[in-house]
Amino acid sequence: MAAWVLSHIPILLCLILIIPQSEETRSIRRTECHGRWIHIRSLPPRFNTELLESCNAFPLMDEPLCPYAANHGLGPRTHNRSRSWYRTDPRLLEPLIHRRLLEHPCLTPDPLLADAIYLPYYASLDALPFLYSPPLFNSSALHALPLHHHLLSNQPHVYSRRHGHDHFLVLAGPAWDFSQAPDADPVLWGTSFLSRSEFFNLTVLALESRPSPWQEHAIPHPTSFHPATLARLDAWLARARRSRRNTLMLFAGGGGGGGANIRGSIRAECENRTDLCQMVDCSDGVCSHDPIRFMRPMLRSSFCLQPPGDTPTRRSTFDGILAGCIPVFFEEISARKQYGWHLPEDQYEDFSVYIPKEDVVFGGVRITEVLAAIPEADVRTMRERVLELAPGVMYRRHGSSAGLRSIKDAVDLAIDGVLRRIRRKVRPLGSPELITVDDEEDAAG
Ligand SMILES: *[C@@H]1O[C@H](CO)[C@@H](O)[C@H](O)[C@H]1NC(C)=O
Ligand SMILES: *[C@@H]1O[C@H](CO)[C@@H](O)[C@H](O)[C@H]1NC(C)=O
Ligand SMILES: *[C@@H]1O[C@H](CO)[C@@H](O)[C@H](O)[C@H]1NC(C)=O
Ligand SMILES: *[C@@H]1O[C@H](CO)[C@@H](O)[C@H](O)[C@H]1NC(C)=O
């Protein structure tokens, strides 16, 4: 079903582009779109739609992928009658954003007029054979090389005009999974996509960046909430705003079984202080497609604990923000050093609490005591700020109303960030200066 719709994307795109326009609307568009033109590269289906068709081809994968490809990557609705809630799987972020980019108001069919060129390559889906087919485990350095060859051999002037510095794509995973040295022996985990010089010039939107990011920039993990109208967004935010919060803090997650670690400390403290702390057991991935399990408790808690897991960032951070549950971080790399385009790095004190994990695990600091000591008025102000930030981390549904489209969501902010970054990279034209993420944030806004 999803594959069918995706295979018709070129037709949808043509329909969008042939809508006749008056000279006046064309000139308004030229003004609004100045510096914002995006060209979507047309790629052979082996780089996108065919990858979706093999979503069930990997028996070693913990969980099948196919059911979540519905609705252009939003996943199936949670219930037949639900309008805004879906069983969204972050692994399908690539088709989800592809569908959204087809609605970008400033698309151009001419790559030479574009400020940025989007490659609708489903990079993480194309990595699955290297991760889940044993005969290919040792070949993971080859991930994405066919894309590189395609760009060099097919209309090569499009890529070479700016050496790829104006190209971007989405990678639905943490950068760590794609950063293996190409000559690693033995091969451990992941592919070498981000470690190969062939791809250094691209801009890659990933769910989590490395501590010293190079070509990637982190964008929010998708949640299950994808409203299509402003009324539905406002209704949800109003509910979160007036929700009675009887619990001081919530931890929704798994782990923390053995050894001295932050999850273990949280678990111990929570079990000890059931009057102040609630736990939602998400072991074995039971929560990942079932937002009801954690959204209700998040609406009833003032603070949501966001400790690192296998990797530093968590989807739960964004679920909590939507629920108006103030995030508590234990590492700077869990969010502050990641999501500068979506959650302003210099405002964390206004909407979150930071407690270094060492203080909790080894220093005897009690999280409940730190949080209970924050004056109620400050808690209210922080929660209001969290809810102001919420629309910017949500992924609205494709085909949303004009009212909702007038508010920047996670994709809009990511596109703004990409365009800023590319503008800096290709300036002065012809001799792009390579930059890292750290020195570009001053351009935000
Ligand atoms: C949802 O609707 C479909 C078809 O209309 C039906 O087969 C299915 O049983 C419904 N599911 C629920 C949970 O009501
Ligand atoms: C992969 O390489 C390792 C050595 O680095 C070797 O032991 C293993 O058998 C190889 N696996 C396959 C499937 O070729
Ligand atoms: C990356 O850009 C530099 C110029 O900044 C260029 O010399 C180099 O060939 C490019 N690499 C690739 C793989 O396109
Ligand atoms: C549990 O509570 C008791 C008494 O309130 C306290 O002495 C103990 O240190 C607490 N343990 C943890 C892990 O918080």
Automatic annotation (TrEMBL):
GO terms for molecular function: glycosyltransferase activity. GO terms for cellular component: Golgi membrane. It comes from the Eukaryota. It is found in: Golgi apparatus membrane. InterPro entries: Exostosin, Exostosin_GT47. Residues 33-364 form the Exostosin GT47 domain. It is a single-pass type II membrane protein. Residues 1-24 form the signal peptide. Belongs to the glycosyltransferase 47 family. PANTHER family: EXOSTOSIN HEPARAN SULFATE GLYCOSYLTRANSFERASE -RELATED, XYLOGLUCAN GALACTOSYLTRANSFERASE GT19-RELATED. This is Probable xyloglucan galactosyltransferase GT19. It comes from Dioscorea cayennensis subsp. rotundata. The gene is LOC120259477.
